[in-house]
Amino acid sequence: MIPQYLVDFDLSELAVIDTDVIVIGSGIAGLYTAIKASEDRRVTMITKKSLMESNTRYAQGGIAAVISEEDSPASHREDTLLAGAGLCSLEAVNILVTEGPEGVKDLITLGTAFDLENGELALTKEGAHSHRRILHANGDATGYEIVRALSEQVAGHGNIDIWHDHYAIDLITEDGECLGALVQRPDGERVFLRGNSTILCSGGAGQLYRYTTNPEVATGDGVAMAYRAGAVIRDLEFIQFHPTSLCYPGAPRFLISEAVRGEGAILRNIHGERFMGKYHELLELAPRDIVARAIVSEMEATKSSIVYLDITHETPETIKHRFPTIYETCIGYGLDMTTDWIPVAPAAHYMMGGVRTGRHGETSIRRLFACGEVSSTGVHGANRLASNSLSEAIVFGRRIVERIRQTEPLTKTGAGIASRENRRDPVMQPVVERRLKLQKVMVRNVGLRRTKEGLLKGLDELKRQVPIFGAALHTREQFEFANMLTCALLLAESALAREESRGGHYREDFPERNDAHWRKHILRQRDKGMLEETSDDV
């Protein structure tokens, strides 16, 4: 059993710091929500590294919103529902497609400089979108530009207190209500940060896998923290593997944006043959899960660890203008996109599931909200449509702040709350080794293609690490590993339960989608175990 708290503490012995709104995380969801909340509230933002280190920063493709007169919210909704494979929430998707354009305008007001063409916002098209509706910045550095603009707003704001290099260990709850967070300072001191409202904006869990486009900080902290606190977790089995990450000796798993295929790049196997025609009529612009599995099949058939992405038919000027970041990164490793085929392979990219929320980001715990990748709003269903994630963070961040303004002041103090499990310092294998072992288990057994046999084997190996929850943990690395293990166990158990293939979950022993039995969500709650919930996507 995973305990409610990771460490022993007694709140009566800790310093208490009061604030109105606690924001945990500093990606687009955290930054934007903090800015909106700070208009009439005191906000304390906790970031375990720095403001600029988040998944958002690495988002290249852009942000999806209906801007063009040739496009419509109805068309955006249809594309989103189609990608979500029967598990989207119709209401959540409607909110996204109708409120997204206003959110984009807000980002522009806050200083985000999106690319222009002839004085108008430049729009591109990505896989599974029926219209050009992706706004981008500096070609392929959209996430970086948004984080830059929002960070500048946050850094100079009198109502926002930023706690750099602080770690939120756990949420403090009493009678189903969140009172705030137990936070460890850089010097190891622990404090109780108490707030009227707590918003999880802690991002995804790409680091569960050995190969990921996510930064080091994406360790699933928010999902694990919320699960321990008793919140409902939904759809964790759906993991999106980006089909095309750079796979080259000495280079990190750098994302080669979907937009490169959107602009006409084609996939070739190591024999130089274009192969997507064998797998889907949309070829390179098929949904991500289909492209990723096609690449793995092709790699196996050709006994290779890579395929190639070829955009050499475009002019060098077009490539350098549209994809400056990707071009410069590849050049740094001796690869020239204008003349060379780029070696790529799939890598873990995005977590569709997360902490279940309502239409205003509210979780099943009072005063606790979730926004961005850590949340499960119902927008993405079983497979996220490209570039919907940044829009989702803005749209639901704004809605969370609306709800917070209606929330009564906190009356509970947390007096008397303590966790005394008498944890001991065990002789522990170094955390870096444990982490690597977990990542390898996940790639091998809970990755792009899954089977009952593999999932059971993976679960068996993961369960051997469970004694860590009875250990006295002190460092950020130890807390992160405990959170990764929590998420890995929940993910593998959910994947084992779902005996079908849908979106980002593929079972080789159940390769077909089964709407008769599985058009529903798998929920996880610490005290109640595994539950199910019907989908309203018709």
UniProtKB/TrEMBL annotation:
The keyword Oxidoreductase belongs to this UniProt entry's keyword annotation: yes
Localization annotation: Cytoplasm
Pathway membership: Cofactor biosynthesis; NAD(+) biosynthesis; iminoaspartate from L-aspartate (oxidase route): step 1/1
EC numbers on record: 1.4.3.16
One Pfam entry name: Succ_DH_flav_C
FAD-dependent oxidoreductase 2 FAD-binding domain segment(s): 20-390
Keyword presence, Oxidoreductase: yes
InterPro entries found in the cross-reference section: FAD-dep_OxRdtase_2_FAD-bd, FAD/NAD-bd_sf, Fum_R/Succ_DH_flav-like_C_sf, Fum_Rdtase/Succ_DH_flav-like_C, NadB, Succ_DH/fumarate_Rdtase_cat_sf
Domain Fumarate reductase/succinate dehydrogenase flavoprotein-like C-terminal per the UniProt entry, residue ranges: 435-525
Cofactors required: FAD
A molecular function (GO) term: L-aspartate oxidase activity
Reaction catalysis annotation: L-aspartate + O2 = iminosuccinate + H2O2
Domain of life: Bacteria
Keywords assigned by UniProt, alphabetized: FAD, Flavoprotein, Oxidoreductase, Pyridine nucleotide biosynthesis
Described purpose of this protein according to its UniProt entry: Catalyzes the oxidation of L-aspartate to iminoaspartate.
NCBIfam families the UniProt entry points to: nadB (TIGR00551), PRK07512.1 (NF005701)
Family statement: Belongs to the FAD-dependent oxidoreductase 2 family. NadB subfamily.
Protein name, entry field: L-aspartate oxidase
